[in-house]
Amino acid sequence: MAQTDSGGDLEAKFASLRSLGVDYGLSRTGIAITTGGYRPRPLAILSGLNATQLSAAIVDYAIAEQASNVVLGLPLHKNGTDSEQSNITRAFAQELLREVRIRCGKSVDLVMWDERYTSKEAASRITAEAMARNQRIPSASDLETELDADAACIILEDYYKERGEEAERVAFDDPMVEAECNAAHRRNAEREEQLRAEKMEERERGRNARREMMERVRAEEAAEGRAEEEGARRKKKKKKKKKKKKR
């Protein structure tokens, strides 16, 4: 399902929209970030993770970067039909959506964006940049280490350039899974609220303990001061008595 908004609302939305770009792959996954589409920057290349671990890592980045939107590249055939890899990506999108909903609720959107030519574009850019700097042209193995993160940047560039038109919003295939995720998010939110309340109580107890300690110290200092004054008065009285006896 494509995203729909009125022209003015769409421009305002995209001007401040902070998005995480994801170039998903079975071996490596590139992550990038941008606000308003301005100069997307690579964040990481993730590897050696299963789908559950990768989903958790992506949501970790979304939370750390305060992104409210995740754009997952969808590798279609040249004619726009689903490929074997796009079917794999759709299956991963369900796992990622599950992690997003459990941890972020509906505060973070997940959409898929046509990424048919992003890898080739990323390779061309990396090669062109090396030539412009009179550096060695990267080999295929060199490109592998940079390609995914750069492809994630291009996914974001294209997504913002088109204002997300024709982006596919990811929805749960199974309503039961959606209900379970929503319930899990509510439990997590309640637990976090309870932890916040407990921390506030602990801080308040700490403040009260420090306040009581300071009051005790002030009271002790005042008592010591009064004792010193009383001692000084007694000494004066003794001196006066001695002077009278001498007379």
Write a short abstract of this structure.
By secondary structure, this protein is of the alpha/beta class. It has helices at 7-16, 51-64, 84-104, 118-132, 140-161, 175-246; strands spanning 18-23, 28-35, 38-47, 69-74, 109-114, 168-169. Helices cover 62% and strands 15% of the residues.
Low-confidence stretches: none
Helix fraction?
Answer: 55-70%
Q: Can you count the beta strands?
A: 6
**Spatial strand order of the main sheet:** 3-2-1-4-5-6
Structural class: alpha/beta
Average pLDDT, rounded to a whole number, is 84
> Roughly what fraction of the amino acids lie in strands?
15-25%
Order of helices and strands: HEEEHEHEHHEH
Shape: elongated
Largest sheet: 6 strands, mixed
Distance between the termini: 112 Å
How many separate helices?
A: 6
Strand-helix topology:
Elements: H1 7-16, E1 18-23, E2 28-35, E3 38-47, H2 51-64, E4 69-74, H3 84-104, E5 109-114, H4 118-132, H5 140-161, E6 168-169, H6 175-246
Parallel strand pairs: 1-4, 4-5
Antiparallel strand pairs: 1-2, 2-3, 5-6
